[in-house]
Amino acid sequence: MRRPRFLSALRQRDDGVSAIEFAIIAPAIALLLLGVIDLANGLWQQMQVSSAAQAGAFYASVQGVNGTPSGIKSAVTNATALTVTPTLSSSSSPSCQSATPSSIPAAEWCGCPNTTSGVTSATCGSACSDGSTAGHYVTVCAQAPFSAIGPAIPGVTLPTKLSAQSYARIYP
Q1: Do 67 and 59 meet the contact criterion of CB atoms below 8 Å apart?
Q2: Which of 1, 51, 115, 116 has the lowest CB atom count within 10 Å?
Q3: Which residues contact 69 (CB under 8 A, 6 or more apart)?
Q4: Which residues of the chain have pLDDT under 50?
Q5: Contact assessment for residue 38 and residue 30, using Cβ atoms and an 8 Å cutoff
Q6: What is the tens place of the pLDDT at every residue in 117-165?
Q7: Which of 94, 117, 108 is nearest to 136 (CA)?
Q8: Largest alpha-carbon pair distance within the chain?
């Protein structure tokens, strides 16, 4: 049995193949691009939250014991356009969920600087391992909500809250 001529002519032609290939691969590329945009957006927002916590710690460092928790909160919230929730913690390992103390001295804790974890708690006025005296610190925390713009990917969980903390040494 002979095949009709038009079928053999169609088998030899490749017009439109690239359009079909593009239609097959385009959704996968679009999802990949959406994931990259989500990742970049999340990293950018995390940097903003971290910068806000650092701004609050800088304010506390400059103002010392004369600063106020409301001043620190203002420094944190004014450091970024994101909706940031600032808190102060009176310990070296805050959960960023604690209530804000009413004054800077109430939020202070004493510690010694180290190279592995930043600052470790110590008794005020005691000697640190490097020979210095334990200093007064305050911990500034900042949190902001995060929601991905892309669809949920099975097996991948994204954070719903971004958080950062920063330490500031307080000088009387």
Answers
A1: yes
A2: 1
A3: 88, 100, 101, 102, 103, 104, 107
A4: none
A5: no
A6: 778 888 888 888 888 888 888 888 888 988 888 766 677 777 788 889 8
A7: 108
A8: 101
Q: Which two tokens stand for residue 121?
A: 């708690």
pLDDT of 49: 93
pLDDT for res 52: 94
How far does the chain reach from its first CA to its final CA, in angstroms? 101
Give me the residue label for tokens 């600032």.
86
- Please, are residues 53 and 141 in contact by the beta-carbon 8 Å criterion? yes
Tokens 């804000």 belong to: 100
Residue 30: how many other CB atoms lie within 10 Å: 11
Q: What is the pTM of this model?
A: 0.74
- Could you give the angle at the alpha carbon of 62 between the alpha carbons of 54 and 98, nearest 5°? 50
Please report the DSSP string for 95-133 in residue order: -S-SPPPSSHHHH-EEEEEETTTEEEE--TTPBPTTSPB
